[in-house]
Amino acid sequence: MSNAFNESGQMLLIAVLIAVLALMALPIMVLVNQMGTHQHVASLQATLAETTAVSGITYAANQLAPVWPAALAGNFTGTDCNQGTVRSPSGIPFTLACDQSGRPYEIHVVATARTATTNSVMVSSRSVEAYLSLRTVGIKLINNYTASAALFVVNTPAQTTNNSLSVHWGPVVCLSSDTLHPWTLYDPLNSQSLSAGRLPGFPRKFSSSGITGNGASPGDLFYRVPDWLATSVSSDQKEFWAFAAQTVGPQLNDAGYQSAAQAGPTVTALLGSTQQPISGSPGGYFSVSGDTIVFDGSLNAPAGSMIYVNGNAEFDHSAIDLSTGALIVTGNLTLNNVGSTDGLSGVALNVPPSAALEYAYYGPSDAWPCQTLVGLTCTPGTPAAGTLFSPTGQMNFRGFLWVQGTLTVYNNWNMAGVIVAGNPSLQTGGLATYGDLTLAYDDIVNHNILTATTELQSDIFRDIPAR
After folding, report:
1. Does the pTM of the predicted model rise above 0.70?
2. Cα separation, 213 vs 28, whole angstroms
């Protein structure tokens, strides 16, 4: 009897303890559930704030484009820059802070969005900054990835040997959509010897068709994507983009260049058939049917000049520094004779902020030209420049060069700025290298190219601590 009562008492005590523990656990379970709910809400609010801030940058770009010249001068009238709170279509408030703390051609924009629950218990803030500029000659993929081009070729380059084409600090974009004939890369575009061994070359390459390396075999690092059958992956997302669905633009302002050349200072060149001097008529505008305009070492064009040749042209022993100016050739341009002492020495080149992107496979112990001077200037022939324009360190041309026909290279030419080879609208022309062409990209030249449309791009786009 006693044992029965003892067992019953124990069971009752256990039941009471379980009930007490259950009651104690209930608030904990509620608290955990509430914490999970709060975390979920916080996550949603953070995502909404991030999305709104990113949309704010797009909103700012749309407002700044129509007033771009005034905005560059510090006048943001007609926009919501520095004007307090703006509400997105979803009702989320955001602010836009705009200034000119970037490069001379950029507007710096910070978009900050804040979200909260209806009772303002949960608050999330996100800030995104962008450096906006006029869209440059280059690439814009369907995912809005943009890259300003050093060299833009309408058709696949005709390159037959290693080292005949070297491009520093900016990518090469190939517009050719010939899917039967891939763009075949030669060194250093194809490969290079680095501290970690033989690796893919520089700079970045974008092509509307396939890309492969000279002599590459299926499965090796340099085979890339010559056709759609090779792989479903068309890019390594850092060195090459094959079959890149790209939008062409901005449209180059041919008429604007003609007018600028005619209104500019008088430029003197040589007439190919007679080798006698000929002056632009007017300014820097040349049009001689059936002949060739020759630019030699005596060219007198000052920095910033616009030169327009309606026909064919030739470079001979040239040393031309147009700075942010341009040379437009509607026909073919031949880079012909050049000597080791024909170029310009001591020219400070602009090293773009994005230059490091072109050397995707470089390790900490690998050096590329002027890597310690990113965003500054660098002079070929100095230790910081390394092998750029070696062995002389001399430059033969700087500016924007647009050859609407074919750009043909003989001998060894060192150039800086931006080159467009071919006519994007007609899908004609291109580049043929029978000598060696070295090009150093200049982002300031690119941002001074005359275009027929006003479209903005983000040179830098990133999250920053909320403001």
Report:
1. yes
2. 63
